[in-house]
Amino acid sequence: MLLILLSSIFLIPVLIGCGKVFDCVLPNPFDGVYGKALHGIFGICIIWTILAFFIPLNSPVEISTILIGLFFFFKGKTYKEFNIFSKKDYILTIVISVIILFCGSFYPFILDHFGYYVPTIKWLTEIGMVRGISNLDLTLGQMSVWHIFQSGFSNLSDPFLRMNSVLLIIYALYIIEEKSWIQLCFLPVLLLFSQSPSPDLPVIVLSLIILMEILKGNKSTASLFAFSVFVFAIKPTMIWLPIVSFLYSLFIIKSSLKILIPGFLILILFFVKNIWTFGYPIFPISIGDVGVSWKLNKEVLRISSQFAIQKTYDMQYSYQEISRFTFADYIKNWLFLDGIKSVINISFIISLIALIIFSFIKKNKIISLICFSIIIKSILVILFSAQYRFFIDVFFVIFLLFFFNFFNKKRSVVVFSIFSIIIIGFLTVPSILQTYIPSFRLGNFMGRMQKEQIYIPSQYSNQEFNNYKVGNLSFHVSKRYPYNFDTKLPAISESYIFDDVKAGIFPQLADKKNIRKGFTWKTLDAKERSQAEKVINSIKNTYQQNK
Length: 547
Known about the structure:
By secondary structure, the chain is mainly alpha-helical. It is built from 22 helices and 4 strands. Helices cover about 60% and strands about 5% of the residues.
């Protein structure tokens, strides 16, 4: 907790200083201290994404950025802008920050932390953005812009990967500075994302801030659209935001099409990044084949697609069962899954219907555009993989639109206080969730509170791994554990080894002398198949030995 505080005190001025630099490149659509910090995040992400193609995001990159940020923070005397806060504002900010720091100090429990977030950050800091890395481990092909941002600061400033906690403090500054009190109601839920570098948190926070600017009639359409595309680049399921931003610029502000240029440049960078790591413009679908030699194998994509469909139904049905569903079965079985997922799915559909009705009643152009964009996003999510984590942002947007005028400061503080206590209770005593909501599986992965987390955030280590070789690739696999968050690079998750061998292929180095040249896949010959089968047998045996 204390170390996250020190990181926050250090990093927020750096982000503000960098924000002042990027104000000279693209107008900042946001006001105040929080606005400069957000602009700093935006600019650093873009620059580091470009750098990651060529170099690892290691200490020299981080130190250079820190020095630039601090220089402009003090040169511009930006620290004086904190004087706009009243004594009551300072007290509220401190209380909220302490809650954020406390919650951020718990053990990570989101499974993607171990299988996706940390491995991605390790690759970026040690090697950089590697061509065709999806051939090694499919999940790594996502390489979210948020993890690029997190990786650059993970060497010195934030080695515990608690940047989401820092962002939540900036969000609290925004809420208090802009008097957007209703958003205090969102903070308790977002505390659940503060222990991991989950991209869900930044996209929710940034989308709500951008949405408020659109509702206020902000005319900085070029910057709003650029920020909206940036959010999409962090997590493509946020496609509704650039859609509504585009329509707002075109039909409400009536801006010229040239304002779209910054946003389209970011979109091109996003596509290039995905083609570089995955082989196609949008992860994880094979749309827009540009014919690169390192693109992912079709059979692996098919297996992944089947798994995504099973995840839609919370793994409660096999793919063969789902393939026999009628159209009515698709809907019924999704709505009435066993456990809490059913409640979430039904709530989602009811919320969408309520949003449509609300839009017709209000007859407001901006609300109608938001409704249209949300419906488009919802249809796409349902068609590809209707997992609740892909549409959780919709609940925040609808709540904001419905209750914007209801929640004043007093009501918001009361809601924030009550639900913060509940969330802290869940984190401190996870057995509550495990006992009363067993279908909420993440509750089973929450670690207990430890006194050491008062000064250092709780984190896991898993040093044991085995070394194998298939073809020209020597790689590591975590021992008796499905993920590789703490495994020496190059590492492959055991599930992808099974998928690759099932598809009759295996990843190989494009240049056996230089890992930065990336990975491709190769059809297994007899010798390589024998090597791969030995790897699979070895993995299975390690689990049997552990019994």
